[in-house]
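Box 3.1 A note on notation
Throughout this textbook, protein chains are presented in two layers. The first layer is the amino acid sequence; the second is a token string describing backbone geometry. Keep the layers aligned when reading.
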Amino acid sequence: MDDTAEFLRRFPPFHTATQGELEQLADMAEVVEYRSGATILDVDMRDVDSVWVVRSGRVVILHPDDATGTSVPIDTIDVGGVFGFSAMLSGASFGFVARTTEPSVVVQLPGKLMRSVFSKPAGLAFLADAVSSATARLGGPTASTRRSVVVRRSIADASTTIELADASRRIPDLVVDLFRGGNDAIAVSAILSVVVDAVVRRALELAWSSDPDVPRADIAWLSLGSVARREAMPSSDVDSALSWSDALPDPASDRTRDSVLMDMARKVHATLAECGLPADSNGAVASSPRFARSASQWRSAAEHWLDDPFGDRGPVGDSGLIMSSLLVDGRVVWGNRDLHTVPEAYRRLAEEHPDALRLQLRDAIARRARVRSLRDVLARRGRTFDLKAHAITPIVNLARWGGLSVGVASASTPARLAAASGNGILTDRDVHALTEVFELVQKLRLGHQVEQIASGARPGDVVVMADLSALERSLLSDGVREVAAVQRRVAYLAGNVGVRS
């Protein structure tokens, strides 16, 4: 396979393309080298009929009114990242400035081929995820967006842990302002995830500066869970993992490579805790050997999970289903995306590991939306309801399985659902219902947590039903019943193809 084709195959939306499609893209591709600070696209460029993929280096997207050398980027495009597709698909001018921050190589792909790529499930999932992220960066009132930029700038400028903690104290108030300022919950959640990513990156940089043994290259820090899916809430903790190149040597001191990296992870999470971002309480953190491995070790672990979904080679024997779910959600926050090797093993699950895919579905439908518990609450036989555990998690799990069934690994919940529509089990109606309920419950969660923050309480997912309006209780009841109905129907269909719930 051509080198360019092989490169494209590693990244969405090209990861599910056939060899012939990849080779056609490679044949039509134009590979261009740019110096640092070069402008690739400008605000006035019209008739954009190409899409660009970063092959090496880095490209930032800047607002045209704020495109100086010291500006805070709207977005940063690392290796494998795609830009220019919105202008290509809409026929509008680019509207922003795309500029390199270091010597870079960019692959330019023709629009006539890319429109076909974006019309397929993986392309649609990519676009849906891009819309979610773009909403986080650009959506909502200008004042709210500007406030998020100010917070991110103060985070980037922090030179000590104390300064970073001070900057991070603005995050809860930012969330309150964004939500009360008219932004929808999905957008606020995505913005919060972007800001958390910024804190993590700065905490990493501070950890490097304090330890000369920490390598500056050939590592990748992964965000897991809701932050990775860009669905963070103020109550979210920080899940993480580390991956590194197998060629990375031990430092010159008497410390080992692995111990240096996990020590760094401990420092990072200690800093994050001071910033009000606690580590995952179940131990899904990069300072644990289970979540800190070389790229080849992660690849081997993924293959083992596929062969033995109920076991793991880790020291405590975690279920492969649990580990794979965490790592498939993973997103590289800093470092080389190629070092995140788990999703690649899961992108052809339907063709290469159908039994593992069926077990993913069984796991997804085992955690049922709690209709009866909610009914008891509404009948005053209970007082509280856990919005995350009994409403959001069942949807997230179904969406993860749905995405894997069509070759989509890491993506947001709405993007996974959109990609899975019509996969043979989930219908368009199912996807519409699940997406609608997901958005509803996320709005209830965020509204509840915003009120808790404003009153000085710790944000959480358990609501007192009496605090909800009659309309909210009715919508929540109907929504959870919709999710349960989809689960029952999916379980019935799955049973006919050999999956038992």
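The chain has a mean pLDDT of 85. The first helix runs from residue 3 to 9.
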